[in-house]
Every structure is written in structure tokens, then in C-alpha cells.
Amino acid sequence: MAHYQAMGDIPPKRHTQHRRPARGGRTGELYYEELMGEEGFSSDSSLLYHRNIPSTVVGAREWSIGDLSTTPNHPLVPRHLRLHDLFAPKDVKNTDVVTGRRLVLGNGDVRISYAVAGAPSPWYRNGVGDECVYVERGRARVETVFGGFDVAEGDYVIIPRATTHRWIPRRSTKDPLRAYAIEANSHIAPPKRYLSKYGQLLEHAPYCERDLRGPEGPLLAEDVGARADEESEVYIKHRGNGPGGIVGTVHTLPFHPLDVVGWDGCLYPYVFNVRDFEPITGRVHQPPPVHQVFEGWNFVICNFVPRKVDYHPLSIPVPYYHSNVDSDEIMFYVDGDYEARKGSGIGKGSISVHPGGHAHGPQPGASEASIGVEYFDELAVMVDTFRPLELGEGGRAVDDGAYAWSWGRPRA
Ligand SMILES: [Fe+2]
């Protein structure tokens, strides 16, 4: 994020002495300044002031992060994955958003996982890349070293690489916490074309700075009912020789991770709610880039929100058939009725996989049926990747095996 924020106790000048309050006539101890920055001091950064030396670690062990193996989409077919079948209700109580997420799809740039969680996660940081976690249903408290967030349905939670944090589901009267995790191997940010040369969101962008929520902080151990000197563990996902080039380690710290008394800068977690996305509409069908919300290296994130649809007198509101020759297109159907997919079996909680190398578009009859429709009540989150996606164990487990034949009957 290019927008400067300052929070808590920071010195007036960077890289200068910053101390705890003096006590009994004695000078307070120094806080420990940490610069957390991207691209080797050449991009956005923040300065964090810790009570403890941030490099302290008193133990390290392997964290077995689960099955991150992937299987190519071969033979090449479009697929329908039923995400809501991934977790049985009895499993939710003991599942957390971090260690319980199951890999649905992945490639060398991005992984899409899913969790239905009722348990608090351990302290965690992703050393591989930024995370964008979309809250499909339910509520949670997300505690980070920058501060906390209350998150709920429709929130995209953007967590920069190496941010120590944890997820604590809140009991909801309606739904458990359903989290759709998009993990990059890179950074995730608003599309460059939405930004001025200095990083402000431009007038044509479908959202602006007012729609982004920064953390509430600072957040210290005592604010969450813990002791500052409480020994703790942090689960770290990092680069290594496991499937997807990823492995895990657990570090033991001799203190609580929430020890940042203040910070400032342009790098921090933030939240954007999909309901604040202002759709761009037209007389004829608008292409998916108007629905884009974020981008990472070699992939984009778009959302299709409830909106007035095409109003040319001869318009066809559902999309034309399209062959995105350079990308795989992954649609996660969150809410409403998705007009183009009527009759395909796709519903809330479904994912469609439309791979590059194969044209896709509305189900038979959907184009004709959409004529005259003025409003689409639909909500979907789309990830388009430039490298082909492979199926993770979660994706393989809930593939309906029939979607490919929903435009024509399969040969026996
Ligand atoms: Fe498409």
C-alpha cells in the first residue's frame, strides 16, 4: 500500500534513539527498530518498534504443512469443484484457517486453498508471498503485529509477506468462518493502471482509499490477555524443497509476538470489502478487466458484484464465448444466481476451472434467456493465472467430473 500510516509510539526521527519511559530516574531501555521492506530497500516499507530483539529465536523445528502436491489438468477439461464438500460439519471445530487450509489449485505463482474453521490458528507468517484471504462467510478477529481487524463476510484481507498474525474465528449465529485463501509467491496490490504515478487510486478505479481499512493498533500482548514474556510459537511457511518449493518451520520465541509499540510506513495489512467495489457497466458487455480488484505476479483477482447489466437495446447481458489463450480462469461463486451457468450444477460454493487452450462461455440457452434482464444478482471472485493451474488434493477430492460435458453429451 502506498498510503502512509503511523500508529502508536514512534520517535520523531527515524533510525534514532527510541526508549521505554524512564523509571526511578533511570533512562528507559531502547526499543528495537525493524525495517520491514519489499524489493530490497527499493519499494514500500514500514518501521516497527519492538520491545524485544526481532531476530530472537530459542527453538526451531519442522512444520509439516500438509499435502501441497499438485496434479496437472490432463486431459485438459473445464472442471467444477464443490468447495462446500471439503469440510464435514464435525471437522470445523478443530480446523483453523492456517494449518487447516486445503490446497484446491496451484502453480508456481499462486495457490488457492480453502478452510472452514472454528478453531484459532497458531501465530503464523507466510515467508513465500502475500496472502489475500477472502471471507466467504462468518466472522473472525485477525491479530497482526501491526494491529487487529474484525473481519466478516465479503472482506478481502491482504496480509503482506512475513507479517506475523493469527486468525481467531468468532462464533456466528449463521455460518462458520469460510476462508478462501489466495497465496501469492509475490506481492498482491491494486492494479497498476488504477494508480497515479505516485500511488494514489485514480478516479476511474472502482474503489478508493476510503474503502480500505487499515489495522487498529498498536496491539500488544496485554491487549489480548497474554503476558509479554510468554513463550510462543510462530509457524512459518517459507521457500524450500517441498512440493511447490514450499516447506514449514516452527520458531519458538521467548516472548509474545505482539510486542510492537508503534510503527509507521506504507507496508501493512489492510482489508477491502467486496460491497465497496463500484461496478463499471456499459451498453454492451464489459470485459473482465473492469472487474479487477487486485493483482500479483502472473495472476489477477477480479470480482463480479451485483450490478445493472448491459443496456443497449439489442444487448446480450451474459458474456460472449471467449478463449483466454494466455490464462486459466478460476471463478468462485459466492452468492446470488450466476446467469451464465444456469443448468450446469454450479451454485454457491462452487469453483469453475476454465483452462487456457479451450474456449468457454454461457451454458446452452443462457444467452437467449438473459436478453431483457436488467440486473444480475451475483457475487463471484475470479482468479486468472498466466501459468496453468494444477489440481491440489482438495481440488481433486471435490471435482464433480461432469462439468466438462455440460455443453454437449459425452461420448460413451
Ligand atoms: Fe471467462
Q: Can you walk through the features of this model?
A:
This protein has helices at residues 366-370, 393-397, and strands at 5-8, 32-37, 45-50, 59-63, 79-82, 102-106, 110-117, 123-126, 131-137, 139-144, 147-152, 155-159, 165-170, 177-184, 212-213, 232-239, 246-253, 260-265, 270-273, 292-296, 299-304, 307-308, 328-336, 350-354, 375-376, 378-385, 390-391. With 412 residues, it is mainly beta. An eight-stranded antiparallel sheet has the order 15-19-12-9-14-7-6-27. A six-stranded antiparallel sheet has the order 5-24-23-26-21-20. A four-stranded antiparallel sheet has the order 1-18-3-2, with no helix packed on it. The model has no long low-confidence stretch (mean pLDDT 95). The chain binds fe (ii) ion. Fe (ii) ion binds next to loops. Fe (ii) ion is lined by residues 322, 329, 354, 360. Its cofactor is Fe cation. Residues 13-23 have a biased composition (Basic residues). Belongs to the homogentisate dioxygenase family.
